[in-house]
Design brief:
- By secondary structure, this protein is mostly helical.
- 80% of the residues lie in helices and 0% in strands.
- It has 6 helices and no strands.
- Helix 5 crosses helix 6.
- The longest helix is centred in the C-terminal third of the chain and has 52 residues.
- The protein is extended, with a radius of gyration of 28 Å.
């Protein structure tokens, strides 16, 4: 009985989310606010236990080493500079640009590095590596190699002075766009299938709870 009472909360929240089918209802907004509040509270707890508290402990342990203390104080100084943005004083708010520039710079570097190492390089290696073990593997390698080339050519925005060459580039770019559309179709199908799986899991949860209540 206790389990049924506890599971009543997620059942009600699920039904409130389903009220979105009838429009932007207050019930759906209530679930949104609750989700944002819970996520924010969880983030605050995680930041305290995994970031702030270990940093303060490391700072206290390094109290006898001035150089290490200075190094440990840098994150606290940068965090304090962020508070000038919410102080309401426009004369000092520019100080928050220093830690924000550092965060954006590091983030951009990580994005570029991740794109190069995690996406572009594996794609280049897979496109240039031919699998000759079977006819189907050879065909797949050729399709991958040709598809990568025509897809890259679809992003060409320059015009050639030679009309015949320009017609060839336009035809190749058109084929590359079809490869992109097929790839986007696969991504969309994957997202839809994941959403349907989540919907099916929620519906089954509600049905099982109702059956448990009715003793069916």
């Amino acid at each position: 009985m206790m389990d049924l009472a506890i599971n009543l909360i997620p059942v009600l929240l699920t039904l409130l989310v389903f009220s979105r089918l009838f429009g932007d209802t207050p019930a759906f907004r209530l679930v949104q606010y609750l989700f944002v509040g819970v996520a924010l509270g969880y983030a605050v707890v995680v930041i305290y236990h995994q970031v702030l508290r270990p940093a303060v402990v490391d700072l206290l342990l390094a109290s006898g080493q001035p150089g290490l203390v200075t190094l440990r104080l840098i994150p606290f100084v940068l965090a304090a500079l962020l508070l000038t943005r919410v102080s309401g004083q426009q004369t000092n708010s520019w100080l928050a640009n220093l830690p924000l520039a550092l965060v954006f710079g590091v983030g951009a570097a990580l994005v570029v590095g991740g794109a190069l190492i995690g996406t572009i390089m594996p794609q280049v290696l897979d496109a240039t590596r031919l699998d000759l073990s079977a006819p189907a593997a050879i065909l797949g390698s050729l399709v991958l190699f040709i598809g990568s080339i025509v897809t890259l050519l679809s992003f060409s925005f320059t015009r050639s002075a030679d009309p015949r060459r320009q017609r060839w580039l336009d035809s190749t770019a058109r084929v590359g766009r079809w490869f992109l559309l097929i790839a986007f179709g696969f991504f969309l199908a994957g997202n839809v299938s994941s959403y349907l799986a989540a919907l099916n899991e929620r519906l089954l949860f509600v049905v099982e709870w109702v059956r448990a209540v009715l003793g069916a």
